Amino acid sequence: MVVLLYRGASLFARRFHNQSSHFFNGFNRLHNANATTSQSFKLYPLSSPTYLVNPSLFYNTAFPSVGILDEKIEILDDIDKPKDSADVLRKWGCSEDDISKIFMRRPSLHKMDIKILQGKLEILTDLGITSSDLVKIIHCRPRFLNCRINLWLNERLEYFRALFGSKEVLLKAIVRNPSLLTYDFHNKIKPVIAIYEKLGVSRRDLIPMLLSRPTLIPRTMLDSEKLDYISRTEVSKESRMYKHVVTLFAISRIETIREKVMNLEKYGFSEEEVFRLFGRSPLVLTLSVDKVQRNMTYVLGTMKLPANMVLPNPFLLFFNLEAILKPRFLLAGKIEDMGLVPQIKGPAMLRALRMSEKRFITAFITCHPEDVVNELITFYKNAKCVKRLAESSKKNLSKGFPF
């Protein structure tokens, strides 16, 4: 603010000096030609009192010269000019903790050109992105500030505002997936959105998919085989599951889909039954082959439920084996051995498995006398503490995108 005031004063001084120089030169000539020895120029407007005007008063030293103002501007410019990228982030609004997290995730930002960084931060400010948002963005996309986010910026933002419907939703989408500002606009973003619209996924349904699955745009790939799989799920375009079915098949590798279909076929399901299961519960496609095998083995081998029970009850594949399925099934056997009621058998077993933890304990444990409650709760807690064999030595082999 101080710099702006000095710049305004300097500009005024320059204009005042240039415009008044000719006037005062003529005024001084008139003054020197005066035959009298008076140092003042006398004005007698009508009958008003006499006024004496001294030309030197127009050059009052109280008003700083142009040179002095320019020197002060240069000094203040040097004071306000950021010294490095950390100073730029600090002036933008980042705290020391934010700056530390950003540099820890992307150390090369220390050497980034200050003017380039300032320009990119100005773009983020116009989008409504705050310092806390920037920390989240750098955490998931460390190279974000090194990308050319200014390419097709106006056209891109105009397109996204029309797609998301509001600036708030657009901001949420960018924070969730910063690469929306870096993807190839004409060759990637627009063609992918057009593919989903052509398949009958409305923009209203596509927005939550873009928010929940940030990799939707770069990983979308549809061919004739995938389109055949989508049709075999028998899900209509009016169904609420349709957008999930289309997007999950589109972003999944064709080899992964085949592998998961074959895995379920091993338990006696036909291909048609598997695809109808995908249509009824699309998120089954996101489960790993190992998890499906472990849950199916326990459901068929230990719980003695028929395989077709999974088709109307896909939660049997989703629930955690060590935390829910196994402890509750073992507790059902304990209650039966003790001859207590209510017992967990038949349809009650499926209902008990779907219950929340609090409701399950209330319905089948704390409803008994205190001594029985203590025994059951101890047994239940011990059953939940049993870990998978060799779990601590399990190696997590990352295969990239999970499905």
UniProtKB/TrEMBL annotation:
Q: Which Gene3D superfamilies does this chain map to?
A: Transcription termination factor 3, mitochondrial (1.25.70.10)
UniProt-recorded Gene Ontology molecular function terms: nucleic acid binding
Key words, A-Z: Transcription, Transcription regulation, Transcription termination, Transit peptide
UniProt record similarity statement = Belongs to the mTERF family.
A single BP term in Gene Ontology: DNA-templated transcription termination
Q: What is this protein called?
A: Mitochondrial transcription termination factor, mTERF
